[in-house]
Every structure is written in structure tokens, then in C-alpha cells.
């Protein structure tokens, strides 16, 4: 994300001007903008004019509009965000107070104004504009006839390619059709690897599968690299890491990232740290349940006792349209940091974030055990 301008006063209100340059930037924008914010960017407006003879003509004009955001829709496939709201600045084509939409796309400049830039929004802004931010991992999850190529960034998991081909079964005495189909499949996967992986950016390329599919593919890849003199593969062959997975489906990514060999290799990546933190919570929940709380009310109660060692929370909660509830989440994050606890904000587009979402989206590992509440805590989910 390119920061074009930043003007914030001491009270925390103000505006920033940004240009999203990558898919991941759009995810950061989606998390930065909340209902009630003012967003300024260019949009298309259909304008109808009437001539002196009574005939009317219409044309589409591009104009700069500022709206007070009322709804937000994020299309991950088209990589586009649609903001809808009322016009709040004078415009020759749109009346004050009239509804309009702004479709934000990559490389489109916009300005965002907030009455209060809270700590979570400011942290998100700093992460989004960090020039050192990169796609940490590429993961190729395979089984015979199925492959999914994913890019795992600090904020999201993006499926770049899904390859599915029919592979005939091996027949006794003849493997010709099976072997030919498998080679065609590997060739298609290899082309996807070359097309979608930026070898100058990724730290590691995981190849995962049940059985020996991963080994066979890596052998094929290196043989083709030598045969076709594909230098980028030969120069980066040390980045390939073979990992076992239970299937070739995307859901296997969580178990892949939790693999001890992978964890050592990726110790400094955000995605791996999220998986590690969530695994630590599950271990604590099983062994010392009085030191593992989840659900907003219980976690808030633990914070009142300054008991939180690590707070786990999904970014989805900060997109709440309930301003007061969002402020409570932000206050909780600030309080945990002030008392020396650590905070892990999980991306809801990571498999670990999806898992945390099943636990109400908020959990905590405590410094010391606390007694459970006597009353039924089943209404916790109503607070999220």
C-alpha cells in the first residue's frame, strides 16, 4: 500500500490518502474502513441532460465523490470493494445527501477520514504501508489429479490456481495411460508454479501431499528445470520443502503450517505464528482449562483481573457495524497491551482465523488460573 498523505491531529481524527497496489492491500482497506467513515475517490456517474428542443441525452462521467460509508461489500475474486453511502460534499453531478456507490480497485487512489483513528486502525495502517511486507510462503497442496497453489501472506491466504484433472487408475501390467496423464498433470502444475510464484519474494515453497505425490512432483520439477534450462527453479531449489498432508485440499494448510519442520523454517512469519498461538491455546484448554478462556464476556472478565498473557482475536470483530461494541474490542486490546500481555490479531482469511472464528473469534491464554463463571456463558456469542 502506498501512503500518499497522512494528516491526523492530537485527538486522533483526520484523514489519510492511500493507493492499494496488491491484492493483500485490498484486504487491509476492507479492515480499515468502517461504517460512518468518509471515503473520497473517483467514481462513474450517469448524467442525463435535456436540450432546448426537449430531447434528452445521457452520458457516463467520471467524478470525484466523498461519501459517508453505510455499507461495505468485498469481492475477493474480483479484488474490488464496493462502498455505498450518502454524498457529503458539493458535487456538480450528485446532490448533497444522495446515495451513491464507489467501487474501489487496485491502483485507485482514495482518501479515508475518521473521527477517531483508534490503535487497531493505526496498527493496521502501519502494517499495510510497511515496505518490507512480503508474501512469506507459497504452498502447493497436492494429490493425484488435484493441486491447489496458495500464497500465504501476512494477512490472507490467496488461492492462485486450482488444477483438477482426471487420472486413470493404474492397471496391472500396463501403466501407460496413468503415467501419461500424471505427467500432463505435473506439467500443468509446473506452469502454474512458474506463473504465480514470485521467487524473489517468497521465503519458502511448501509442496505437500499424502503418499509420494509430492516427491514425484519435485523430482519432475527439477528434471524439467534441467531439461528446459529453467534457471529460476534451479537457483531457488533450496526454497522447496516437502511436507506430508492428509489430502490435496486447502483445509490441509493448517496441519502443514503446524508441522514442526515447517515451523522451524517459518519461525518469523505471521501465518506460522498464528497457528502456533492457536495450538498453544488448545493445549492449554485441554491441560489447564482454567487458564484458557474464550468468548467475549469471559475474556473481558479475565482482563479485569489483569490475567491475560496472550489475547487471540480475529480482525472480523473489528468490522462490527456496532460502534460501541467495536470500541469495547479496541479497549480490550489496549488494556491487554498496557498490562504487559501480547495480542495476536488473526486474519479471518487464514485457516487459523477461521478456526478461531468457531470459538466466537476471541480467546485468551491466562497468566494464572481463574475460576469459571457459575452462570451459563452460552450467551457469549451474542456479544460478538
From TrEMBL:
Keywords: Cytoplasm, Metal-binding. GO terms for cellular component: cytoplasm. Its cofactor is a divalent metal cation. Its main location: cytoplasm. It comes from the Eukaryota. It is found in: Cytoplasm. Signal peptide: none annotated. The keyword NADP does not apply. Residues 1-130 form the eRF1/Pelota-like N-terminal domain. One of its GO terms (molecular function) is metal ion binding. One of its GO terms (biological process) is nuclear-transcribed mRNA catabolic process, non-stop decay. PANTHER family: PELOTA (PTHR10853), PROTEIN PELOTA HOMOLOG (PTHR10853:SF0). Belongs to the eukaryotic release factor 1 family. Pelota subfamily. Component of the Pelota-HBS1L complex, a complex that recognizes stalled ribosomes and triggers the No-Go Decay (NGD) pathway. In the Pelota-HBS1L complex, pelo recognizes ribosomes stalled at the 3' end of an mRNA and engages stalled ribosomes by destabilizing mRNA in the mRNA channel. This is Protein pelota homolog. It comes from Amphimedon queenslandica.
